[in-house]
Amino acid sequence: MCSTMIFLGIFVAVLSQVYTLPLKNTTEPNEGKMRMKRKYSDEIKDWDEMTAMDQILVVNSRLRAPRGITVRDGDIASTFPRSAISCPGNTCLWQKSVDGFVYVPYIMSPLYDDMDRITIETGMQDISAGTCIKFVPRTHEVSFLDIQPRYGCWSFLGQTGGSQTLSLQTPGCMWSGVAAHEFMHALGFVHEQSRSDRDHYVTIVWKNIMPDQIHNFRKQATNNLNSPYDYSSVMHYGRYAFSDDGGPTIIPRPDPYIPIGQRDGPSALDLHKINVLYDCGANE
């Protein structure tokens, strides 16, 4: 009986020591654990890494495009099933006024509340403050943006003529950086990593991309405006955009640790490129 009690005492003591040992960090990779699959960019754990495009892809991952509209490259709308997105010869630019400014008329859905309107108008102001682009409420203009809380965050590329929808779903798209991103599409800009010269600056990791989303990484025949590649552009995909296996789909080169994309609004180079494209001149 005494020996049994001694044995039980030793067993309890050992067991208590085991429970006080630090647990292994289960987030570290190990042989028996595969990477969890990531759907688009919506499982980014670090808020600081969340870009405007990441948020757009989170919202648009549940998007069913309206009838007659195809959404390509994640958020660029088209009424034609084109294999490429382009604005040949700058034919989709908004007209410049004789006073040197480019006025982009818009109407905004009454379904937005006051905070939504402030967010959207902040996205406009972030562009207007550094360029000759001025977003103005529509009066009688034939061509204008119709800003609607449709399903998802998307825009047509440049001016298409007449009324053109620009969708900013609430609350999912209610980031001023997301609004600015879609307004830049409406001004005629594609995503930064779609540039014709992008392979000099980033490596696309094709094997990590969701197979049915590979088309979103095609290069476009872009006018790069003699401007440097902009890793900090609000138009840049995030590092894990459309990732299939949790690994990065875009790696900067030559320094793989350069941050890419952001959510704050147009970068200095974004504004510079708008000014070059629209020949803002002294208004830059």
Automatic annotation (TrEMBL):
Cofactor note: Binds 1 zinc ion per subunit.
SUPFAM superfamilies: Metalloproteases ('zincins'), catalytic domain
Signal peptide boundaries: 1-20
Binding positions (Zn(2+)): 181, 185, 191
Keywords, ordered alphabetically: Disulfide bond, Hydrolase, Metal-binding, Metalloprotease, Protease, Signal, Zinc
Taxonomic superkingdom: Eukaryota
Enzyme class: hydrolase
Protein's UniProt keywords contain Protein transport: no
Cofactor dependency: Zn(2+)
Name this protein carries in UniProt: Metalloendopeptidase
